[in-house]
Every structure is written in C-alpha cells, then in structure tokens.
Amino acid sequence: MSVARSRQSEPTGRALLKGLAFASPFIIGFLVLYLWPILASGYYSLTDFSLFKAPKWVGLANYERMISDAKFWKSLYNTLFFTFVGVPVDIAISIAGAHILNQKLKGQPLWRALVYLPSIVPAVAAGFLWRWLLNAQYGFVNEILRWFRIPQPNWLLDASWGGISVIVLMLWTVGGTMLIYLAALKNVPQELYEAAELDGAGPLRRFWHITWPMISPVTLFQVIVLIIAFLQVFTQPFVLSKDPGLGTQTATGPGDSMLSYSIYLFQNGFTFLKMGYASAMAWVLLFVTLGITLLILWSAKKWVFYDNR
Questions:
Q1: For residues 268 and 249, what is the distance between their CA atoms, to the nearest angstrom?
Q2: pLDDT tens for each residue of 23-49
Q3: Which residues are CB-neighbours of 302 under 8 A, at least 6 positions away?
Q4: pLDDT, tens digit, for every residue of 229-244?
Q5: CA-to-CA dists, residue 88 to 162, 218, 223, 244, angstroms
Q6: What is the predicted pLDDT for the residue at 233?
Q7: Taking burial as the number of CB atoms within 10 A of a residue's CB, which of 52, 172, 183, 290 is the most buried?
C-alpha cells in the first residue's frame, strides 16, 4: 500500500515543482520588487532615514508630525478634492459619451478610436499640451470661452482654479472609461427597453430603472479604479505646476492649489531627503485608499444590481 501511495504522490509532487518553476519569475519578482519594498517602507516609516545615514528608530514620531504639518493637510485636501469632484464627473461624462457612441452613427469605429486616442498619449506630453491650452493669454480654451462671451479664468496662475485645471487634465483620458461603459451598454437586454417603451417609460425612466441597474457592477469597478488613480495622481499636477527652471520643490501651483499627496510624498523623500517621513505618508495613503474602497464596497449592496440569470 505504501509503495502504491508513493507512486501516486510522485507525479503530483513533480507537477507542483514544475508549476513553481514556471511561476518562479513572478514569485521572485513579487517578493523582491513588491513585498520587500512594502515591508521595508513600513520599517522606515518608524525611523529617521535620509538615504545617506543609517535609519534611526523614532517610533510613531513621523506619524505624529503629520498632525502639525500644514502642507500634509493641504496635499491631502487637494487630493481628496481631485478625487471627489473628478470621479463623479468622469463617470457622468463616460456614461453620456457611451450612450452617444452606442447610437448608429456614420463612421462609428472612427469616433470610438478618436475618443480613446487621448488615453494612449503619454501623460507628460498631455500635460505640456494642456499647459498651452489653459494659458490665460493665448490658450485655446480661453479663446473658445471668449467667443461665447464667458469670463476667462487664469487657470494656471489663480489658486481658485488650480485644482480645476488638474481635474480637467485628468478627464483628458475619459475615453478609456467611456469604452468600458460602451461594452456594458451592449450587454443590456434590448427586450427590457422594448417592454419599457410599451409601458410608456421615457428616456430618463428607462435609464434609471433599466440602464443604471444593469451597468451598476461596471460602475462599481470604474469608481474603485478611478478613485485609486485620482488618489495617486502625480504627473498631471506636477507638469501643470512645475517651473522647468526651478526644480521639483516648485511643483505646487499657486497657493499650493496643485500640490497633490503624491507630489508632497515625492518631495519629502527625494527633495528634502526625509525618507522616513515619506514612507509614513505612503502608509497613510494606503489606509486612506483602503478605507474609501471598503466604504464603497460596503455601500455597493444598496445600489449594485447583479443579474444572476
């Protein structure tokens, strides 16, 4: 019996070893490039560390310092502003655009490609493009507003418009979200719309009672992905606000209105060489993101509909 069992277990053991061998590049990469830096940052967040001297244990001093750090709170406020304003606008534009692209339009594939095109433009290139478009003196955006006799804001030099400028640039890549919603609309059963039309339901009622519930799982996914992206925003405000001749410390915009959390984290770690404090900020961002995500998942049971057919 024991010989038979050993013979049966050998192929399983070999299969396991072969599987681990094939998965070893990912496993090693995850341990070295992900897990180890995560654990190291947790340790460094409890130390005074500047890359040029050995870490000195300070306990929770870095976290306590955040309480009295005005720039920390400013960067957190700005990032939450970007998120809670930008994400709903992004979702609204995406759903509206997906409905338009879902119509039988001439040259439909071309329009879909044009909508997605900004998503493949490098973020740095897009940032410099929008620095020109939002220029108060010769920018094309203000020129359009001037045609319609609408007041032209000083986008990049007015503290009250700095955050809005960042959100506008973030919405530049709305096409990717729009196409995902387009795919979701294609999966909504047409017989539901036909039945609603027979009952006399108008477009708004059809959207609220049919379209919205049917695409709500996709909306849940999009909201979480967008929130994570907005909370980690770095390139867009960095490019919009940075003076090329003055270094990274100036990448904050007028009145620090474009100072995102990631930019301030980067400044502490690589400009001010306060790597311990930067590591603590990274963990705070992790818990903020985790808290918001869990809150959304908890609320999903009240507004997300799953068609378990």
A1: 10
A2: 999 999 999 899 999 999 999 999 999
A3: none
A4: 999 999 999 999 876 4
A5: 19, 14, 8, 32
A6: 96
A7: 172
Q: Answer yes or no: are the C-beta atoms of 234 and 285 closer than 8 Å.
A: no
Instruction: Tell whether the torsion through CA atoms of 194, 196, 201 and 205 is positive or negative.
Output: negative
Q: How far apart are CA 180 and CA 95, in angstroms?
A: 9
**In the block, residue with structure tokens 């306060």:** 274
Alpha-carbon distance of 170 to 164, in angstroms, equals 10
**Coil, strand or helix: which one is 57?**
strand
Euclidean distance between CA atoms 200 and 209, whole angstroms = 13
- Output phi, psi for 139, to 5 deg: -70, 145
Neighbour tally for 116: CB within 10 Å: 15
CA distance 99 to 60: 51
SS3 (DSSP) at 273: coil
Q: Residue 120 CB: number of other CB atoms within 10 A?
A: 9
Two tokens, residue 253: 């915009």
Rounded CA separation 250/266 (Å) = 12
* Residue-wise burial string across 196-223, b where 16 or more C-beta atoms lie within 10 A, e elsewhere: beeeebeeeebeeebbebbbbebbbebb
Q: What is the pLDDT of residue 241?
A: 86
Contact 88, 232 (CB under 8 A): no
Cα–Cα distances (Å) from 309 to 23, 189, 217, 305, in that order, read 36, 12, 15, 12
